[in-house]
């Protein structure tokens, strides 16, 4: 059983190397086959909801133009961090000021990505205040 697995592996390996003229076509076919069952998950985080929405729109437009299927953007719950500070330096402890930091999050799934879609995602220019996490 081990030998059969090894022979299949070597046959695939030799087929991929093939002739020089056909190797580019084989590489493209293999990359298409490798991407066929995958899903790319993109999580966006930002403090500004307008910037994160425009970034999500850019990603969706770019990927759909490249021919991949997109699910989203899905708005995730907004994370609120509240900081409470005493207004006076010495006295009046009951007088406090509240500061709030909101982190907006979006989720985008790319189902069956094409190599062209991945390449266009790599070239996409997004604002610096958007945090992007990409998982395969």
TrEMBL record:
Residue stretches making up the Small ribosomal subunit protein uS10 domain: 41-135
GO molecular function: structural constituent of ribosome; tRNA binding
Residue span of region Disordered: 1-37
Comp. bias regions, Acidic residues: 22-33
InterPro entries to which the protein is assigned, alphabetical: Ribosomal_uS10, Ribosomal_uS10_CS, Ribosomal_uS10_dom, Ribosomal_uS10_dom_sf
Recorded GO CC terms: ribonucleoprotein complex; ribosome
UniProt GO BP: translation
Signal peptide: none
Alphabetic keyword roster: Ribonucleoprotein, Ribosomal protein
Coiled coil ranges: none
Pfam families reported in the protein's UniProt record: Ribosomal_S10 (PF00338)
Recorded family membership: Belongs to the universal ribosomal protein uS10 family.
Record function comment: Involved in the binding of tRNA to the ribosomes.
HAMAP family xref list: Ribosomal_uS10
Self-association state and partner proteins as the record states: Part of the 30S ribosomal subunit.
Descriptive protein name: Small ribosomal subunit protein uS10
Natural source organism: Kineosphaera limosa NBRC 100340
Phylogenetic lineage: Bacteria, Bacillati, Actinomycetota, Actinomycetes, Micrococcales
Name of the coding gene: rpsJ
């Amino acid at each position: 059983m081990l030998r059969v697995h090894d022979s299949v592996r070597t046959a695939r390996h030799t087929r991929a190397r093939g002739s020089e003229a056909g190797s580019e076509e084989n590489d493209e076919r293999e990359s298409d086959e490798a991407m066929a069952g995958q899903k790319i998950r993109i999580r966006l985080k930002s403090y500004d909801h307008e910037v994160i929405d425009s970034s999500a729109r850019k990603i969706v437009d770019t990927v759909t133009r490249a021919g991949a299927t997109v699910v989203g953007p899905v708005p995730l719950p907004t994370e609120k961090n509240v900081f409470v500070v005493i207004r006076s330096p010495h006295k009046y402890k009951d007088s406090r000021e509240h500061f709030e930091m909101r982190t907006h999050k979006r989720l985008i799934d790319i189902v069956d990505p094409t190599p062209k879609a991945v390449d266009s995602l790599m070239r996409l220019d997004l604002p610096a205040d958007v945090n992007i996490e990409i998982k395969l």
